[in-house]
Amino acid sequence: MSCCQCQGIEALFNDRVARRELRKYNKRGATGMTVKLIQAIKRESIVSLSLMDIGGGVGAIQHELVEAGAGNIVSVDAAPAYLEASRQIADRLNYLDRVEYHQGDFVELAADLPASDIVTLDKVVCCYPAMEALVSKSAQLTRRYYGLVLPRENWLVVIIQHIINLVTSLRRVPFKMYIHSHEQISSLLRKIGFEEISTKQDIFWQANLYRRR
Question: Order of strands across the sheet with 194-201?
């Protein structure tokens, strides 16, 4: 990731946004396609499995899977405000001693991160310009299950992408939204050794779960 995109993520997902998302999670729990991805993972046997949650925001996937029996957690995020919000919830839920937090660009950190049984990227690939590097490095660290939430490839999402990128440009925030090809992502994962086992969609987002063959 360019340093500019990292700076843009920190600027957009700042303390104010993290506090708002924290209040939302405390009130409603996980929502939208995040719920669909969590449900798909929970249908598998995940008791004691380790999780790496990349760009996990306030940690909805982490908290829900720990409640379902998952083991140790690695949480990686470019936004320090989100890591702090996630840490607060983990402390309240009494599993803080099982979480390892890393702030920064996952692709740059990947060589020093442990492999995990489950790896999730919820609305993360669309924030990253170098899709192949992000997907390949994260998939290579996945022992069993690989979960993604991606923007749909339709005209409505493309319009939203252009609006977001226009607004961030006008605000001089160095952040862009990307819509990467689902077929290219799936093809890359198949080459690494994964098969798709679940797909859920709404009008804006798509949740996919893959299993290592």
Answer: 99-103, 73-77, 51-54, 116-122, 142-151, 205-212, 194-201
Residue with token string 């990227």: 121
Q: Give me the amino acid identity at 134.
A: L
Residues in the chain: 213
> Could you tell me which residues are beta bridge partners of residue 77?
103
Judge contact between 60 and 30, C-beta under 8 A: yes
Q: Which helix (H) or strand (E) holds 26?
A: helix 15-28
156-190 burial by CB neighbour count: b if 16+ within 10 A, else e?
Answer: ebeeebeeeeeebeeeebbbbbebbebeebbebbe
At 44-102, the pLDDT tens digits run 999 999 999 999 999 999 999 999 999 999 999 999 999 999 999 999 999 999 999 99
d(CA 14, CA 8): 10
Q: What is the CATH number of domain 3-126+139-212?
A: 3.40.50.150
Instruction: Please state, in angstroms and rounded to a whole number, the distance separating the CA atoms of residues 69 and 71.
Output: 6
In the numeric block, which tokens belong to residue 172?
């001089």
What tens digit of pLDDT does each residue of 87-140 get?
A: 999 999 999 999 999 999 999 999 999 999 999 999 999 999 999 999 999 999
* Cα 35 from Cα 32, distance rounded (Å): 6
Q: Where are the domains of the chain?
A: 3-126+139-212
